[in-house]
Write a structure and sequence with these properties.
This protein is an all-beta fold and 340 residues long. Helix content is 0%, strand content 51%. It has strands at 8-11, 18-19, 25-26, 32-40, 43-51, 68-74, 77-81, 85-87, 89-94, 99-100, 107-110, 117-118, 123-125, 131-139, 142-151, 164-169, 172-176, 180-182, 184-189, 194-196, 200-203, 208-210, 215-218, 222-230, 237-244, 256-258, 262-263, 270-273, 279-285, 290-296, 302-304, 317-325, 330-339. The two termini are 89 Å apart.
Length: 340
Amino acid sequence: MTLATPFVWTNDNTPANSINSTGLYQAGSAPTTDVVRATNQGIQGTATVTISSVTPPAPPPPNHPSVLTTIRISPQSATVGVNLQVQFSAIGYDQYGSSMTLSTPFVWSNTNNPPNSIDQTGLYQAGGNTGTDTVTATNQGIQGTASVTITATPPVNPPPPALRHLVVSPSHATMNMGDTLPFTAVSVDDLGNSIPVTPTWSVSSADGSISTLGVMTALNPAQNVTITANLANNTPGTATVDILAPGAMTDISNAYAYPVPWKSNMGKPITFTNLASGAHIRVFTTNAQKVLDLYSSLGEPVNWNVTNMSGERLASGVYYYIIDDSATSQTKKGKLVIIQ
């Protein structure tokens, strides 16, 4: 908890030892024991302190220069495959445990020589057999050693082949019935490198066909016909095609409805024609009440049986239509006269 008042610090063995208001304890010069107390709101906690004598390390005897006493090799143990190498290094230490700069180089040797060897830089060369060996570094008659285990070299596997995938061009196309369009494919690796290829081609529906050379023929009106390119060791590539209906337009500037007026005794529907792919038709009363929505997904003519959204026949009168083309943001308006 957070207290409103600070702790009051005291110690029993004072003035030989002391503690300040932040809890910092100062030991005196004599070995002894003491008790530290923290008090707040009449509640007290205690801790014990043991003060011991400290003997400072003895300085090096005067006129006794450093003498090489120990050599340590790194790594102390190493595992290396047959016919492979490993680098060793060595440091000399004096009688006080301090590292030394030596005036002469280390002399390197190994026990199992041949078939293994070590040069005078500490580079160890394993031979063609498995086994163990000992490396020795010598300087001024002092030696350090390290152990070596020589194992069978694991087989070096060839790098995995680069991942490749096919990219089909064009990725999307709009075609008229009876038209042909060539498609091509490239194989792209995971580094972005591409090469032209001749894949196996297929088409997702009978609304189109594609030759072995990638030439697509549009047969029937359809949306999202999928072209697929396949090649061994490649992820397949795809493209999509929309096949427009006969008479489909690129825009709705010439769209209209007929016959006007429409009479129920004609025995035929009202037809909206010269539409573009994705055209949206809305019919309204003169009071701006929507009668229904009609769509032309592929630019095909739309026949309307002159009923509303509930399937009820419309009453005689004047109606209006609005045709929207989302691709070109065009709008076309017109009037209908219905006589029942």
